[in-house]
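Page 47, continued from p. 46.
Same chain as before, 528 aa.
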Amino acid sequence: MATSVTDDRQTITGQADRRYAVILTAIEDETRAVLRHVANAKEVIVKGTVFHVGQFEDWDIAVAECGAGNIRTAIVVERAIDRFGPEVACFVGVAGGVKDVVIGDVVVATKVYGYESGKARAKAFDPRPEVSLPAYIFDQRARAVRLKGGWKSRFDPQLTHTNPKIFVGAIAAGEKVVGSTRSDVAKFLKESYGDALAVEMEGRGFLDGVHINHPVQGCVIRGVADLLDNKDETDKAGWQLIAADAATAVAFEMLATLPSAGAVKVQPDNINTTPTPRRSENTPSPKPIRNLALGAPPGKSPSIYFEPGEILAVFGEPEDNAEYGCSTGEGFYLRVIPSVPLSKPLSRAILGASIREAGLFAMWRQPSGLFTQNQYGSIVVEPRAPTSFELKALSQLFPTGELWGFAPWLLVRDRTEYGPFIPAAALESLYRNMLFRYINFLSTHIRIAAPVVIKAGAFGLKSFKLAVYNDSAFFGPFHDNALEETIELADFSAESLNSVLLQFFEVLFEASGYSRPPNLYNFPSPNN
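Result:
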């Protein structure tokens, strides 16, 4: 089942085009059914809780068996979301059928009643139900999946299913095992919760734990293992295994067909989606481009102040020694900063959810690279090559809402007849795409809108010349650390953004002793 054990510093990790999910179960049969769909599972221990972390199609998935009960489940799902920052979280397991369903059917919850909430009077119990709601995207996905039979192809071929159906409806959750239709609880459910199709013991606590971790999307999926009567006999007949397998088939069919909850329109780029070779999960907390809150060392720029050769990010197992940095201490940077401080820092769940969209705030157009979280927020590293630890680009989203980027890759050293140079038009295109990507990402995913503060600059470029291809003129040299520029943006109009960029490039050209040629790069509006 598991191939290795790591400690609680481990996180779900993956390629830029991968997504992240947490799946919880209550018992062994459910866990085994889920793990049958998860490849390359490793054990990851988070504060004592064992997660099995592996892959399913374009998902990285963390699975944990939390035991029975709503309270235990709420604790584990909170722990899972805090550690892994998933896009979605699902509880997959079995339940007792209350009405309309037969053994082997699957119920995807539209709501989960906390049926034990209420007021006990002298001669009666007045229910005051608490209702937990799954995410709407799962409601709709379940309705679409049940129209087709594709989910049944995911059944375990070693099990014999009848002809199960998918129901989308209400479930009741409490702390009692209901073992008879003649029990007081069963009668109470039929009288007070007439639309409940099934009863179980974890769904309410699970959804409550998801609810307090917006924007994670949650759902509860239950296979009907018994109809309350003769529970021991149905368990001995193997229906618990069959019901768990059916619920799991529905869950993974929904994951396989679920559109991204955070989907956003980006600039019409021809995105290269060639996958980067997978890496192992990170161990030590990576160093980011440092947060201003840490304080800049004396004499350094407040925008970029790491030393040449300093390690900026660490990925992989300790023996991998995957330490990324910029050995020469040269490059370009861009920062987009909220002009009004956030009322509270971005949560780990929000930062974690942002990783799945990290391709949108990467420095270059292709959403490839290494993605993870550290104690400062979300971070993406783009190596120069799959086997290189030298940075092509690095981006960091901080809890303050600041989005930083650094890229040294436009520094050209292999044209010795001209000396080291920088292609000006390509640099301007890079900055333009970066700026609009960053602002679109912050406004769409983090709800941080203009006005913002933009800081763009370059450093360590003393030996480089600026190359302008339209007349084959190579300008230079630059003056080291002379190109920092801070401009406050008053609004989010395309004219203002382009004005920011043009001012920066005019300063950059002037640092070389030349004026920027007109129409060197055309700056279209962000919607073009």
